[in-house]
Design goal:
10% helix; mainly beta; 10 strands; 50% strand; 123 residues; 6-stranded antiparallel sheet; 4-stranded antiparallel sheet
């Protein structure tokens, strides 16, 4: 068993295409918890800021902790998100978020561990 409190984990820059798009706290991963199958992270997007669209070779789940914003999906389709919402993102689904509020948009993201994904994909 491994336990961590999010308050004890530092925010780190989360980079996309060489620029910071949000902050991340790595709560549970192989490096700290020995998690071999799934990682748990918390993201923070500053007020009025976007997190650009991207996709992954794995599905993941998002749970909105605070704030409000937009989930931006395929073909630019949007869906409002707010605290308490859960979002399932399919493998290779184009997705991103935009904070539309005046406070940070924070959410938990659970995804497949990189080693597990590489094994599954035969890499």
């Amino acid at each position: 068993m491994f336990k961590v409190n999010a308050e004890d984990v530092e925010w780190e820059p989360y980079m996309r295409d060489g620029r910071e798009v949000s902050k991340v706290k790595h709560l549970l991963r192989e490096e700290n918890a020995g998690a071999e199958n799934f990682y748990m992270r918390v993201f923070k997007i500053e007020p009025r800021a976007p997190a650009p669209q991207h996709h992954h070779a794995h599905e993941h789940q998002v749970y909105i902790l605070r704030g409000k914003g937009l989930f931006i999906g395929e073909e630019g389709k949007t869906a409002p998100v707010r605290a308490g919402d859960a979002v399932f993102i399919e493998t290779h689904e184009l997705h991103g978020f935009k904070n539309t509020g005046e406070e940070p948009l924070e959410f938990i993201c659970i995804k497949e561990a990189p080693k597990r994904a590489a094994e599954r994909l035969g890499a």
